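TL;DR need structure tokens for one chain.
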Amino acid sequence: MKGIVSTMRKNNLIRKSLKAWKLMSFLESNKNFETKIKAKTELEIKNYETNLIEQQQKIHELIIKAEERLKHEQKKKIQTKLALDQVVLRGVSALNIEALKLSQSALNGI
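>> reply
TL;DR here they are.
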């Protein structure tokens, strides 16, 4: 009877130790899987953040270029307006000179 009891205890201990070993190996593989997934996720997040930063920089550069073009166009507009004003003033001056000539010739003809 003692032999049977000791054999059953040994079998029970072996069964419990195998069960514990199985549980530990399962938990260890879960930890490894979790570590791998965390690393992949962190890498993807880092890549995504890097891409966002690059896109922001490109957009910022485009905005700066657009502002420079706008300033250039505004300067051209102002220059064109000044040139047009000069042309109008020259035309008005020429008309005034012609009017004076006509009035002088009319006065001289009287």
